[in-house]
Amino acid sequence: MGRGRSVVALGYQSSMPHLIAWCAFVGAWLLVVGPLDQATRELQEEEFERDAVALAASAIEAPPAISRRWIPLVPVYYVLRQRRAREYRRRILAVMDSGDLEAFAHLREVATAWAYVAAGASLIAVKETWVLHESYEWAGWTFWALLVLMLALGAAVTAAGVRRRRGLTPSAM
Predict the structure, then answer these.
(1) Could you tell me if residue 11 is left (phi over 0), alpha (psi between -120 and 50 degrees) or otherwise beta?
(2) Per residue in 31-59, pLDDT tens?
(3) 82: how many CB neighbours lie within 10 A of its CB?
(4) Cβ atoms within 10 A of the Cβ of 59, count?
(5) DSSP type of residue 168
């Protein structure tokens, strides 16, 4: 019996595509969870910037709420809300000192960079979830169920990491 036949007899050729599909699926979802976890770690380390922003926000008066009469006109309501939020942010930043502004800008850059990485990884994970679904020729609903399950699992892992790190802080001991 030749080498090719023994490999087929062992089922190697039929199981290898499934193994590869599972590896790609798990790897893609790890690429989603990893940046989310790293982002939360770095954002937690940057706590003083949040405190500076909160202190600056408490020093100025919050803008009045947008009138409910604009709600039926969703685009108008959205534009008014965005303008008001932009003005409020501008006023907050105006009362912050330059050191806090630099630290806050760094915080935003870190958060934005990790959001890009996690978003890109999420797109890869969706694709790999689809490939796994097709590999087994599962029903269409299984793709969506698996996608929702993995998103929930990723969120749970990230939240558990945040809770674990908060429990390890010196103030909690």
Answers:
(1) left
(2) 999 998 888 888 777 666 667 777 777 88
(3) 10
(4) 11
(5) T
